[in-house]
Amino acid sequence: MSLTTQIKEFALDIGYSKVGIIPAESFPEYIADLTNRQEMYSFYIKGAYRPLLGAEPRSLMPKAKSIITTVYDYSQKNFPKELTEKVGRVYQARCYNAPPERINGARPQLMKNFLRQLGCEVGEKISLPERLVAAKAGIVNYGRNNFAYAEGIGSFIYLTSFVVDKELDYDSPSFVVGCPEGCSACMKACPTQAIYEPLKLNPRRCIAFNTFITQDRMAGSYIEPEIRDKMGTKIHGCDICQEVCPRNQARLKEKLLEDEFLVKVAQDFSLAKILNMTDNLYLSRIQPLMYNYIKEKKYFQRNAAIALGNLGDPAFIPDLSVAMHDPEELVRGYAAWALGKIGGQLAKGILTEGNRRETSEFAKREIRDALLRIE
Fold first, then answer.
1. Would you say 141 and 80 are in contact if contact means Cβ atoms under 8 Å apart?
2. What is the tally of structural domains in the chain?
């Protein structure tokens, strides 16, 4: 059995749905695209992932010869409606940047261990353009919503690649857009028009971006009021452009087994609880799903405040009143925004009291803006 066959069969054996291999060459088209859109993607280009370096694998691993790329189908079980209204499916599936002690983090580690047993050196911390890699290997094609699609699965997939120092047998590319001719369902459905043309996304308008990239250490924590209004109840990720896609309907309508862990999580997963979350709730219900980007609970609290404001239900005013006393100015400020969105005399009284005692300039500004909306 050839080295290539051993690698591909092992990948399928441990749960990957598709596997392909390409030479470890540079990706000049990706470098050019990121460079041309620096203003939109500066948070990523200048961040810890170093994507421009990763797009030239041999700059980080001089011995690199091949890239093994895999597709994991994360939509094999049902996602509770109570969660999909708030959290993207890939995060519910616990597969995005999963730690090694979780099953979806153990899988890539098993792959690396197997490759090393075969005598391969495996690159570490090389951030590849995963969708482009997988398309070059012929295991995915593109959607106009910017997602990669795998035949027979759809776009609910997670891509992982491994750079090795061995020459292998290479696969043929699939640089096609597999969407129905003339379809623009994703562009029409996006509440913020983040998909400004087919295959082009302005991340700063994307709801998903605004739920988790907007952190002080990454892109600043401020979310524009116009975007807040359109975030609905999303607190981590957004699947709208995938949910409306004709290519995903078969999987979305399929009768799947329940994920019993998610069923348990959904029972405790309320926006009000997240707004004023305890450390125990964070550790037992939030972190197991969303250990990928956000490390501080205040950002989830901010997102929950926005979601409650968008619901517009006065029943949540007491919860927002509690949040107005939170030690984090970020939480107080967005709770004020939510109270202003809900409106009414009770909300106005809470905001007025908050304005008298508030010391944070950010929170005071949000309180004053909220009061103006009520008046």
1. no
2. 2
